What does this fold into?
Amino acid sequence: MNTPSPNPTKPLILVVDDEPQIQRFLDHALAASGYDTCFAATGQGALEAVATRKPDAMILDLGLPDLNGKEVIETLRAKSNLPIIVFSLDEPGGFRGILSGRGTYTTVKG
It folds into this structure.
């Protein structure tokens, strides 16, 4: 069953991160900016949410407990042009080719 955004006038952002505090932060920040959010804590959950919730964009953490972010991106790119924003503590060089101009990466130096 396809579950659209609760408010069809607001874009739906899928947040994929296994840390609840990051999910809460992004939920508040995105809501304050006029977006609806849905969440997945695993790569498999992200793929299922893309199929069922039909988000307008995805914010993806690369360090997930099951699939890594690269696997999620590769699987999605085979069938979707969903905009992806990647959050990572790693250098982005290996992901530039996968994103192929269809996403953004952000690195944070710790």
About this structure: The chain has one domain: 12-107. The mean pLDDT is 84.
